[in-house]
Amino acid sequence: MSKAIESSGICKTFGDRQALKDIIFDVNEGEIFGFIGPDGAGKTTLFRIISTLMLPDRGSMTILGLDSTKGYRKLRENIGYMPGSFSLYLDLSVEENLNFYASVFGTTVEENYELIRDIYSHIEPFRKRLAGRLSGGMKQKLALSCALIHKPRLLVLDEPTTGVDTVSRTEFWEMLRKLKQHDITIVISTPYVDEAMNCDRVALIQDGKLMSVDKPQNIRDGFSRKLFSARAGDKYRLLLALRNYPATLSVFPFGDSIHVTFSEETPGRELSEHLLRAGIADAVISETKAGIEDRFLELMEKNE
Amino acid sequence: MRTIIFLIKKEFLQIFRDKFIGKAIFGIPIVQMLILVPAITFEIKSARLCIIDNDMTAESRGLISKLEGSPFFSIVQATSSGKEANDLLYGNKTDLVLHIPQEFGRDLGLGKSAKVMASVNAINAMTAQLSWAYLSGVIRDYNIDIIVSANPAAAAMMASPSITYRYWYNEMLNYKHYMLPGILVILVMAIGFILAGLNMVREKEIGTIEQINVTPVKKYQFVTAKMVPFLVIGLIDLAIGLGIGKLLFDIPFEGSLFLLFLCSAFFLVAALGMALFLSTMSGTQQQFMFMAFFFMIIFILMSGIFTPLESMPVWAQKIDLLNPVAYLMRIYRMIMLKGSAYADIERDIFALVAIAVVFTALAINRYRKTA
Question: What is the least distance, in Å, from the CA of A164 to any CA of chain B?
């Protein structure tokens, strides 16, 4: 399988802060590759380097077979970039924005309409509306349409789902999966770990370092301990009590339950006595299957 | 080329989409012309005069009536107290004090030279100089009257040689004719210097420049597309300004209209180049406005609109070699009032073209698509 991106030893420093440390990864052609990490992990910096907007201090990147620093002219014709913040012209209408981006790439909306139809059809009824007056979800669809209008071979999406409601997020991933049929490689970043399962492969990134690059299932299965899910009426009190328990290794609130690991094989009587002493009588603790979030949190702890 | 046209179309669309800017770019020149041209003048219509007459003779009264007869002076008060007169000067109740001493009439009678003393409020040096010149003119006239009445034969001697004046290129010394070309320059300057730069910085602020930077649009294409709309608007504003000047202020226009517009186009490219160069160095519209304001003030005040360039210190004249406004100011006045042709203003045109080329190149070069 040929590679869409090959990155070797990318480093970038701002002042005395090292934003990216020796980033090595590769992206296969036609896959959806996700970068997952908290805010400030270096995702945007990396994406700006991929989009030829920034030069790395060290290391090199080959994108679509071209060197990113030397072949940037040719590359720009084949990359569709959607920055983290909405950056289309707010004072131009939906239609005007789309036409404008088509024309600067030397193409027309009609020519590549097929590619964006599924996405653009949602906002087409509002094509006369100014981009500044669109709702968040519609803005996102317009931005994606504009990034796709020149039929790029690589789509770079920097946190496209941040600040978007759950329904729109699901819809958005749906659209990306459809784009795969058009042989477009997609690189996407997100701070939401639960979105990782939508990617073919993900890279976990923290403090400018890649922690793990693999299929999401493999990352999830890399969870090394037995994981328990704990519930009680008073969730906060339960959290504190679990934290105080000597054999506890990690405790994280997870939705309406609490995910916890212990150093002992199976927690027994001692734990229930400990919880009773803490005034929790209704605790239910059962073994559960680790999600990718659990693995990510585990990796983060190790990293620290 | 097609890309540039698309980019330019987008700029025009955005300029006129903004309802305020769309109207203001044509409204402001009209308002500016209507207010500034009649308002700015160096002419002094009248000065207030206080006279201390300690002499009280026929001679002193003769001088006073001569001053009363002048339309320029309005006599605030005649007094015999020097203190009272000084109080008036302190209190800004009078612009000049003329002191006629006791011996004035006697000395004149004896055929000796008589002395008067004038005190002038020089808070505003320009007003002071002018009113002093008027006052001494009246006194000189009075002097001649006395000599002639005492010795008619001397009149012939006094009369020659007499000097007559003729003011070339602006015969009536009409300040409107002097100021109007200058105000036209400021008008064209404001369009060229402020709007394009702000426009560029706004793209940075909103982040749209990121999206443009990942496209194959070339640097020179983007910068050109930022310049052309404001070049066109600047020239349209100039036409409006000239129209108002002709219709309302009857401004003379001796030279070639084509030459005037050609020079203005060169100037606009120079101003736009400078502004876009500044914009590459500012991250926010606020930073840009602050810098642009600073440069505009310097350019305008050192352009020769109010004060002749020749009276500036040599080092300042050297700085002015980089001031596009100074060149255009000279060109406008030469073309409009004197009817100068290309050959007369060749050097100024070359200078403008040089500034335009250098700063546009700098703007294109400094505008980075990759950080």
Answer: 19
